[in-house]
Specification:
The structure holds 2 protein chains of 2 kinds.
Chain A lengths: L2 H32 L4 E5 L2 E6 L1 H14 L11 E3 H7 L7 E6 L6 E3 L7 E5 L6 E5 L5 E4 L2 E7 L1
Parallel strand pairs in A: 1-9
Antiparallel strand pairs in A: 1-2, 3-6, 4-5, 4-9, 6-7, 7-8
Chain B lengths: L1 H13 L7 H20 L11 H14 L5 H16 L8 H18 L7 H25 L4 H5 L2 H34 L2
Helix pairs in contact in B: 2-3, 2-4, 3-4, 3-5, 3-6, 3-8, 4-5, 5-6, 6-8
The chains are: A alpha+beta, B mainly alpha.
């Protein structure tokens, strides 16, 4: 192969790399959102944040540091829904709708209901659940898929 | 007889490592050190991922262009990687060294594919962009190994790729321009 042809192939590879990166990111978002590994937080029809099990663990650590003596002081993978919403910049809202992967039931939560609700990262390191602390960490949704914030 | 002895004596020095002489290895060590120091000194808080590629990849290509032997890129990568670990740059700990070694090793391979014509602007663009992107890919692999949240790895991957390509290409162009000017001047003394 001549030198000039190699240059052309090299430029094509660069274009493919750049285009492929956009395609790969889009596919990864769709695929991971589908199985609950990447959870979008939606407000005003826009995705304002993405969450995953790792983020929940990090938020849990921050919450324990900022609010010592809370219910989750011994749980290293659980963060309250209110703290999560605050960290994504959600302040005023009418209700929160949390849906799960597959055919699981959706939950509509008013601002007064979310105090005892928490997100708990599962031990398999990939997904997280919606739990009710007031009922002994009863699992409401096994794998959270989407959090919708209604204004 | 005396000539024969000289040849025999000079053999180990001529192939110190990767068929590179001691002098070349010392020069490559200097480039590796420059890469680490430049990353340390010129790390601007501009919030653009991959902006260090301008001088990082530029210096890598410049070093490889001036010492166009196989293994030159890898040696610069190893030296800059070890120094980066010692300086404590990055958050990956000792694994950070791989982020420096991979672009260097890839540079050795790509230089062969482009007939070692690193003074060509287009070759600079292609090689600079590709080795810069290889740095990003290594970061992501390290992120997976270190169990960094998927959100941080997936989100903005395309944007980071684009910026790494642009900054890497810019570094490659700078290196190509410098090589064009430096190579004729250093040809007599550096190239053995």
């Amino acid at each position: 192969m001549t030198f000039n042809r190699r240059i052309v192939v090299g430029i094509l590879v660069l274009v493919l790399v750049a285009g492929g990166a956009f395609l790969l990111e889009h596919m990864a978002k769709v695929q991971l959102s589908r199985n609950g590994r990447l959870v979008p937080v939606i407000q005003d029809s826009k995705i304002i944040a993405y969450l995953d099990a790792g983020t929940i663990r990090q938020l849990s650590q921050q919450e324990r540091e900022l609010r010592p003596g809370q219910d989750n002081s011994n749980n290293h993978s659980e963060v309250s829904l209110s703290f999560m919403l605050g960290s994504t910049g959600v302040v005023d809202y009418q209700y929160i709708e949390v849906s799960g992967v597959g055919n699981s039931k959706d939950f509509k939560l008013n601002p007064g209901d979310i105090e005892d609700i928490a997100l708990s990262a599962s031990s398999n390191h990939h997904t997280f659940a919606l739990v009710n602390r007031a009922e002994g960490n009863r699992v409401m949704i096994q794998k959270v898929a989407k959090v919708y914030v209604a204004n | 007889m005396a000539k024969e002895d000289l040849t025999t004596d000079s053999k180990p020095v001529d192939s110190f490592i990767f068929n590179l002489g001691m002098a070349d290895v010392i020069r490559l060590t200097m480039f590796g050190t420059l890469i680490s120091v430049s990353r340390f000194v010129f790390h601007f808080p501009i919030g653009l991922p991959g902006h260090t590629s301008v001088y990082w990849m530029g210096l890598l290509i410049l070093g490889k262009g001036l010492i166009p032997k196989f293994g030159a890129g890898t040696i610069m990568g190893i030296v800059s990687g070890l120094l980066a670990v010692v300086f404590g740059l990055g958050k990956e700990g000792p694994l950070l060294a791989f982020k420096c070694i991979v672009p260097g090793a890839l540079l050795d391979i790509l230089a062969i594919l482009f007939f070692k014509k690193l003074e060509s602007i287009w070759v600079g663009v292609i090689i600079g962009a590709l080795i810069s992107w290889s740095k990003l890919l290594t970061s992501i692999v390290l992120g997976v190994i270190l169990d960094i949240p998927m959100v941080f790895l997936v989100m903005g991957f395309a944007y980071a790729t684009l910026l790494h390509i642009v900054f890497g290409a810019a570094g490659g162009v700078l290196a190509a321009i410098l090589l064009k000017r430096l190579k004729p001047r250093l040809a007599a003394s550096w190239q053995t």
